[in-house]
Design goal:
By secondary structure, the chain is mostly helical. The chain has six helices and two strands; from the N terminus they run E-H-H-H-E-H-H-H.
C-alpha cells in the first residue's frame, strides 16, 4: 500500500502487528478521554507519544503492554520501516499535547474534537492497517515543505 519512495526510510524495521496493537491502545485511551475528559488520560497519551516519537519505545506504557499482547496472542512479526511510524508518532504527540492543553484549559469542545481526530487515526491504523503518517509525509515532501533525510 505504501510507496517506499514517498515514505521516510531509515532502514530500521518494527513489527507492524505490534504497532497496530499500540494504535489499538491509543484508540481505547482516546475513547476513555472522550467519555471522561480526564486530563490524566491526555497526559498519559502525551507521555506515551513522546517516548515513541523519540525512540524510547522500551519505556512506552502502550509499547510495553503491546509487546506482551503480541506475545500472548502469538502475533507474527511483520517487519515494516520504522520511519513512517515514527513520523506518525510525532503527529500523535502534537495532537495529544493539544489535547492535554485544551483539557487543562477546560476547552471541552475543542478537546473533544482533538480526541475524535486521535480516535479516527488510531482506528485506521489499528483496525485497517492504514498509517496516515506516511501519506502526510509524502504530501509534504511533494510540496517541498520537508526534505528527505
Amino acid at each position: 500500500m505504501n510507496n517506499s519512495a514517498d515514505c521516510p526510510v531509515d532502514f530500521v524495521t518494527v513489527n507492524e502487528n505490534k504497532v497496530r496493537v499500540v494504535a489499538f491502545f491509543v484508540l481505547i485511551a482516546a475513547i476513555v478521554y472522550l467519555i471522561t475528559t480526564s486530563w490524566i488520560v491526555a497526559a498519559v497519551l502525551s507521555v506515551d507519544f513522546l517516548l515513541r516519537a523519540f525512540n524510547f519505545n522500551t519505556y512506552s506504557p502502550f509499547g510495553i503492554i503491546s509487546s506482551e499482547t503480541v506475545k500472548l496472542f502469538k502475533l507474527q512479526n511483520k517487519p515494516v520501516d520504522r520511519a513512517p511510524k515514527r513520523f506518525a508518532a510525532f503527529m500523535g504527540l502534537i495532537f495529544s499535547i493539544a489535547l492535554l492543553i485544551t483539557s487543562l484549559s477546560q476547552l471541552t469542545q475543542t478537546s473533544e474534537i482533538i480526541a475524535i481526530v486521535l480516535i479516527v487515526f488510531a482506528a485506521l491504523e489499528s483496525l485497517v492497517g492504514f498509517c496516515a503518517g506516511c501519506y502526510v509525509y509524502s504530501f509534504l515532501k511533494r510540496l517541498n515543505i520537508i526534505k528527505a533525510d
